[in-house]
Amino acid sequence: MPESKKKALGILAIAGVEPYTEKAGEEYMSPEQLAHFTKILTAWRNQLREEVDRTVHHMQDEAANFPDPVDRASQEEEFSLELRNRDRERRLIKKIEKTLNKIEEDEFGFCESCGVEIGIRRLEARPTADLCIDCKTLAEIKEKQMQG
Question: Where along the chain is Zn(2+) bound (predicted)?
Answer without folding.
Answer: 111, 114, 132, 135
